[in-house]
Amino acid sequence: MRILHTSDWHIGRTFHGVDLLADQECSLAAIAELVAAERVDVVVLPGDVYDRSIPSADAIAVCNRGFEAIRAAGATIVATSGNHDSPTRLGALGSFAAAGGLHLRCRIGDVARPVIVPDVHGEVAFYGIPYLEPEITRAELGVPQARSHAEILDAAMRLVRAELAGRPGARSVVLAHAFVVGGEATGSERSISVGGVETVPLWAFDGIDYVALGHLHSPQTLSDSVRYSGSPLPYSFGERSHRKAVWIVELDSSGLAAVERRELPVVRGLSQLTGTLEDLLTEAVHAEAESDYVSVILTDTTRPVDALRKLRDRFPHAVHVEWARPEGNPELRYRERVQGRRDTEIAQSFLTDVRGAPSSAEMTWLERALSAAVREKDGPVRVPVETGAGEDSTELSA
User: Order of strands, edge to edge, in the sheet holding 2-5?
Assistant: First the structure.
């Protein structure tokens, strides 16, 4: 049997405010093409199908088209819910979907109800363990004292092993949405810890032929039989060096025979650029980033005005810009920086940090405003404003 392991689709996610549905549809089409090319029998998807518990109509449409393409390519699909999904909504039409080859395992009661897929060697039992929040699931799993994810997953795996024991000769695949010790987060994952330790030990999956993990967004091998496939698209600039992939898993008569990595095509690259606005807009060295999603750190002496709009003239997919003064930011804490300094000095430093050094005219205004604020007692103070001729002809309320 040939199995394709993918996870963390996060359909409906945005990237710094940019809609990714078109990119996600491309990545799902690439997975369907792999299913056909690799003659895959089963696709496993361990959680975070959607990015939010109530996905938009457009997100649902993209996801459904992805499922349809995979089914049309010849594979059965087994999927679980992750911490981003609503188990109730994702699994609402589970029985109906199963008739079409999409098997959803979103309820605790389904943990020990495997999807059985036969091949020439017999049965392969697919057990789906959705994301299990300890506070919510411990009673139903029969471990009311459990507080950690490790205790909860151990209880779920006891149910799996008890059911598997009644299937002599069957090979086993477990789908689990969890943070397993040894895995490395990328920064785009939402924490699954709520008042407890979020990691679970690798040995919790002992005795299973293959464990398809979801939650972490980069492909990772924790052991020959326990792996993360990662997300099909990068969801943070911290993932810009990752090559997204899926695992092709082969089971023979005795269990796990081979696992091979298949890289997914890059839909749109990520680039992080640093320099002055003028250099970024003119230097030929940045030409390769023009079609990428771009994050920029500006090093101009003063903060450029309307920088993101200007950058998009050259980099249409620029999504993030920040200004870092060339000399860097002081490491002193705010309290230490202001201690013993006059209000005018503090205000001047603030303006310099966020915009650039104020002019002498601006400093005059600033000193008058601060003086007025100090003098104010019973009502607004009238602050004289000098005209171009040097006469006080107008008053403003301070």
Answer: 102-105, 76-80, 42-46, 2-5, 245-252, 255-263
Q: What's the chain's length in residues?
A: 398
Inter-residue contact 28 to 65 (CB < 8 Å): yes
- Residue identified by tokens 């993918």 is 6
SS3 123: strand
The residues facing 49 across adjacent strands are none
Which tokens hold the place of 295? 């994050």
Task: Provide DSSP, 153-197.
Answer: HHHHHHHHHHHHHTSTT-EEEEEEESEETT----S-SPP--SSS-
User: Which tokens belong to 294?
Assistant: 């771009």
Q: What does the pLDDT average to over 247-253?
A: 98
For range 26-55, the mean pLDDT: 97
- DSSP letter for 306, please: T
Nearest partner of 268 among 61, 25, 77, judged by Cα: 25
Residue 320 neighbours by CB under 8 Å, 6+ apart: 16, 237, 294, 295, 296
Q: Quick one: the chain helix, strand, coil %, rounded to 5?
A: 30, 25, 40
The closest of 291, 307, 288, 310 to 299, measured between CA atoms, is: 307
Contact call for residues 235 and 189 (beta carbons, < 8 A): no
- pLDDT band at 298; cut points 50, 70, 90: very high
In terms of Cα–Cα distance, which of 18, 35, 42, 298 is closest to 175? 42
Kind and range of the H or E element at 258?
Answer: strand 255-263
Q: Inform me whether the pLDDT recorded for 363 exceeds 90.
A: no
Answer yes or no: are the C-beta atoms of 85 and 49 closer than 8 Å.
Answer: yes
User: Residue 218 burial (CB < 10 Å; 0-12/13-18/19+)?
Assistant: buried
Which residues on adjacent β-strands are paired with residue 383?
396
**Per-residue tokens: 145:** 């004292």
Q: Roughly how many angstroms between the first and final C-alpha of the chain, as a whole number?
A: 78
